[in-house]
Amino acid sequence: MAKQTGPAALSLIGLLSCLALWMAPYTTATTTPAPVSPTAGPPIHSAWNEPALGEPITITISDADRNLKLDRAKDYILDCPSGRVPLSWPLVVWGGRNVVFQDCDIDVTIRNWAAAFKNQAGTLWVHDVHFGGGRLTGGIQLQEPAATVVLRDVLFDRVHGSFHAHHAECLQTWAGPRRLLVDGFTCPTTYQGVFLLPNQLDHGPAPAIFDLRHIDVDDSRGAVALWLGDVTGGLSAVRLNLQDVYVVPNPARTWRGWWLWPRAGIWNGVRAGPPPGGHYVHPAAAGASGIDEGVSPVPLPRELP
Fold first, then answer.
1. What count of other Cβ atoms lies within 10 Å of the Cβ of residue 120?
2. What is the pLDDT of residue 43?
3. What does pLDDT average to over the chain?
4. pTM to 2 decimal places
5. Burial profile 187-215: b = 16 or more Cβ within 10 angstroms, e = fewer
């Protein structure tokens, strides 16, 4: 579990919970420039798009294939059968060059995180995925110091935690990624939301960009919803773009400093309350569907290939 240097210190129980997942056996602001304007002709190719794969290996996710160690020189497609895919342990994926994971509805049946992705060498591309489970203590953990991570239309069941137990987050990174691009992200939590600590366990340079679009976090029963820290060179070293980011704060913690860290500055564009049109991502027959369907986000300069 990532250290916290602000209002909430980690408990030993929360630390051990996160370490248990990461040690599992295997079978990683400032105002941004304006987006690149679309031009006539073919769509702009950018890091938001599904990566090109060379002779990819397809793995069907099941309870027998949920702890994966992949060759970092090869590309992979993580496929899912139709319907919910019950897993008795979180999905753990180590390695691979470009890894595509989409159209999946996983159901973690124990009290634990939903998934962990580590040390992809190129791009991790997650699209239309529902990370489910009735007893989730967290959503996704990232250990991705060299990778581009793209999350498009991802949905989480409620993650459960508290100050004295599991410090549940919807998304947590403590190493990288080099670029984090999110468009369409819906998560309810009873403790914490999006925790970004890119250089806590990675002593390399600051990330190139964190681009967060169409995010809604239901923090009405929680604590800190958005947190950015542990950046090499200070927070101003990472380009942070925010577009249509909403948080429903705990009614007992309405002051923004109680649910945003740091309290001022970088999170000024975040709006309190639900998105006017409702959640950005919804359950679908093949995982999830949402704001990102059928469109490609307009890239910023640091998001071009």
1. 28
2. 62
3. 88
4. 0.88
5. bbbbbbbbbbbbbbbbeeebbbbbbbbbb
**pLDDT score, position 75:** 98
CA-wise closest residue to 245 among 29, 20, 4, 80: 29
d(CA 41, CA 61): 38
Single-letter amino acid, residue 68: L
Q: Which domain holds residue 129?
A: 12-28+48-289
Residue 297 lies in a domain: no
User: Which distant-in-sequence residues (6+ apart) come within 8 Å of 124 by Cβ?
Assistant: 96, 98, 99, 101, 117, 144, 147, 148, 149, 150, 177
At residue 8, does pLDDT exceed 70? no
CA atoms within 13 A on the CB side of 11: 11
What pLDDT does residue 115 have?
98
Inside any domain, residue 300: no
Tokens of 88: 């008795």
In a domain, 41, yes or no: no
Report the candidate in 166, 160, 183, 170 with the shortest Cα–Cα distance to residue 245.
183
Rounded Cα distance between 190 and 159, Å, is: 6
The answer to the question of residue 7 being in a domain is no
Torsion over CA of 256, 259, 279 and 132, rounded to 10 degrees? Answer: 180
Total domain count, the chain: 1
